[in-house]
Write a structure and sequence with these properties.
Number of helices of chain A: 7
Strand order of the largest sheet of chain B: 5-6-1-7-8
Structural class of chain A: alpha/beta
CATH class of chain A: Alpha Beta
CATH architecture of chain A: 3-Layer(aba) Sandwich
Order of helices and strands of chain A: HHEHEEHEEHEHEHEEEE
Shape of chain B: elongated
Strand content of chain A: 25-35%
Strand order of the largest sheet of chain A: 6-4-7-8-3-9-10-11
Oligomer: heterodimer
Largest interface: A-B, 54 and 60 residues
């Protein structure tokens, strides 16, 4: 076909984005999204970024493999737009000097500490539902399917980006989240999309952090 | 000048009814009795009892004979006074000239208010609706003089005399008793065969002064507006205190919802009238004084990030606060104390607000979280200019971030609250050492060599060793 020959190495996603192609019910261009800030990941996600008004689950086995790096560019962009971002019961201290270095406006980043996991889920739901927060990050441990569904509904209601950071053991359970990704170690950190609403997850994983010899 | 007179004829019963749940069937048969132990007299009674012939001043025995299902409650003048002050505070929202009379009437100058609130018919509708919402039965009349309005209110609820010229005509037709002269004077006038004010006005002034003293003539002049009528004006207090007692013990926060709503409504009516807001107040839960002698009342402080006066959101916050707290004993009385009442600044909203349907903004959300999780639970972060990692950040109130100047080297996005021993030797060192040697000035001295390392599992961490080349590694952060 001559049309395709003109486009250098077209991916099916490129072709489908062509406005001349009508795809029936799939009007996914209307879905609001926030670019993740990682070009390869945006390319692989059906909405070109994190889906707004939905939960995104990030599954990872151990700390320090880039789990925050995955979301920090998006959070930086949001706070720069004067939108509120909330960390609900983070497992460690979000370190202000590092966040500043990542271009985050600390005037729009808030932390909420909670005495228990139940309260953390409550606080996350309140923040998601309020419509005040552009993004809400939470670390639910042993959250029930029902609790996650509540978060998903709250995120839809408040049109917020919800991030739930969970262990990889949760990967086998079904989840109401719109997007699920897993961080894997393989010559650095790679992101594997397990589920993305609106498309089949791509078969290949995406490099997030290469195994560098030196940094800084 | 145009005065509205507001009579509060049922204040005692209203005060009682306000503290009872709406559907209490006993309220219909309630009579207030005086505190006289030996021979209690009826002070006031509900309409159903009055229809059966129960009158003010009757003995309780006589009233019970007329109406066997009669229930009694002790007359509490302090409670009545509280409610009267609440009404005065409410009226203060409509006029700066409000006067509280000893007999319980409230006088409000509305000549200056009509320009703002529209014609009297409209204002009257609004007042009656608000007074009914406050649970206060009332009679209203308007006249160019305060005493004239009072006399008219006694005669006809809703009377309106807008013009000084027609005031005399309206007064002329009133019975003498409505003018509330001294009781002896009224008796004497009746004894002279006079029944209407017209007949009193027709008498020669010199003769009236000789017979009754200057007070009566002065009173007649103030009634008709011929003489000025200086009134002592009401000033709203700077603190709010309201309290409700229960005749049974309350053990669940659910059961406190009704009294809470009443108290919050009162608080917000009070705040609106003085155009203020509330930023912090205490919910006071009192316990049975006999059963729990040693137990001080439980005070729950509700704090807000900015002054507010919207009853709904304040109520929601209180409910959260109540649910989050445990009370050591059943509750017998419930109150609100607001000592600090700052001026209210209405919240401005962006016309092109992109967040759309939300009812909240960040301060309101933070209030909601704090009231359940505690005042310290919500905070923002700031970087601090201190080379020591533990001191290079701090918690702060939300708001524009202070601009930090120092950009230190590579720092981890997660900091451990305290350094932990690293389990295994690092697999690789990715950066470092960065020597941090500081804190000699405040005793928090530290000397460390920081490295960015990679663990065997591939985690990137921030770890340090002592500067003397100690072998043990301490983990201080994750490059997450």
């Amino acid at each position: 076909m001559a049309v395709f020959a003109l486009i250098s190495n077209p991916s099916i996603a490129d072709v489908l984005r062509d406005p001349r192609i009508w795809r029936g019910a799939a009007n996914d261009y209307a879905v609001p999204f926030v670019p993740s800030g990682h070009a390869a990941l945006d390319e692989a996600l059906p909405h070109r970024g994190w889906t707004q008004g939905a939960m995104t689950e990030i599954l990872f086995a151990i700390d320090g493999i880039g789990e925050l790096d995955l979301v920090l560019p998006a959070l930086a962009a949001l706070t720069r737009q004067r939108l509120h971002v909330v960390f609900v019961a983070p497992p460690y201290l979000p370190y202000a000097p590092a966040l500043l270095a990542r271009d985050i406006d600390l005037g729009y980043l808030h932390c909420v500490e909670t005495p228990s996991d139940v309260e953390a889920l409550w606080a996350a739901e309140q923040c998601l539902r309020s419509g005040v927060c552009a993004a809400v990050l939470c670390w639910p441990r042993q959250a029930s399917d029902r609790a996650l569904r509540r978060l998903q509904v709250a995120a839809e209601f408040g049109n917020a980006l919800g991030f739930a950071f969970r262990g990889t053991t949760a990967a086998t359970n079904p989840s109401p989240a719109a997007t699920r990704v897993r961080l894997q170690m393989d010559e650095g950190t790679r992101v594997r999309i397990l589920k993305c609403r609106g498309a089949n997850p791509p078969a290949r994983s995406i490099p997030l952090r290469s195994a560098a010899a030196r940094v800084g | 000048m145009l005065w509205a007179a507001l009579l509060l004829p049922r204040l005692g019963l209203d005060a009682l009814a306000r503290s009872a749940p709406d559907a209490d069937p006993h309220m219909q048969n309630l009579a207030l009795i005086s505190r006289d132990q030996a021979r209690p007299l009826i002070v006031d009674a509900m309409p159903r009892l009055r229809a059966a012939g129960v009158r003010r001043g009757q003995t309780l025995a006589a009233a019970q004979a007329l109406c066997p299902q009669l229930k009694t409650a002790l007359h509490d003048p302090a409670q009545e006074q509280k409610l009267r002050e609440l009404v005065a505070a409410w009226a203060y929202g409509y006029s700066s000239q409000v006067s509280l009379r000893e007999d319980g009437a409230v006088l409000i100058e509305i000549g200056g208010s009509l320009g703002l609130f529209g014609p009297w018919a409209q204002l009257e509708r609004r007042w009656r609706a608000e007074l009914n919402a406050l649970g206060v039965s009332h009679r209203l009349a308007v006249a160019p003089t305060a005493l004239g309005a009072l006399a008219l209110a006694r005669a006809h609820d809703g009377a309106l005399v807008g013009n000084p010229a027609t005031l005399r005509q309206a007064l002329d037709a009133l019975p003498i008793a409505h003018a509330r002269f001294d009781a002896l004077v009224v008796d004497a006038l009746h004894g002279m065969g006079l029944s209407r004010l017209r007949e009193v006005y027709a008498l020669p002034r010199a003769g009236l002064i000789r017979r009754f003293g200057a007070a009566l003539v002065d009173c007649l002049d103030r009634l008709s507006g011929a003489a000025p009528d200086p009134l002592s004006l009401y000033r709203p207090p700077d603190r709010f205190h309201a309290r409700m007692e229960f005749d049974h013990e309350i053990e669940s926060s659910e059961a406190l919802r009704f009294p809470l709503r009443r108290l919050i409504d009162d608080l917000c009516a009070f705040l609106a009238s003085r155009d203020g807001g509330v930023q912090q107040f205490d919910l006071v839960l009192e316990h049975d004084p006999l059963q729990f002698k040693q137990l001080a009342p439980t005070r729950l402080t509700v704090g807000l990030q900015s002054p507010q006066r919207e009853a709904r959101s304040v109520f929601d916050l209180c409910v959260l606060r109540l649910q989050a707290s445990t009370v050591p004993a059943p509750v017998r009385a419930f109150g609100i104390v607001a000592a600090h009442l700052p001026p209210f600044v209405p919240r401005a909203r962006d016309l092109f607000d992109k967040t759309g349907g939300s009812q909240l903004d960040w301060p309101a959300l933070a209030d909601r979280l704090r009231n359940r999780l505690g005042p310290e639970a919500v905070y923002a972060l700031a970087a601090a200019d201190d080379p020591r990692p533990e001191h290079a950040w701090r918690k702060r109130e939300a708001g524009p971030a202070p601009t930090s100047v120092r950009r230190p080297g590579l720092r981890p996005s997660w900091l451990l609250r305290r350094p932990l021993p690293l389990r295994n030797e690092p697999a690789r060192i990715l950066a470092g050492p960065e020597r941090i040697e500081a804190g000699w000035w405040d005793g928090g001295d530290l000397r460390r060599d920081y490295y960015v390392i990679e663990t065997r599992e591939g985690q990137r961490a921030w770890a340090f060793r002592g500067i003397q080349g100690e072998a043990s590694w301490l983990l201080h952060g994750w490059f997450a």
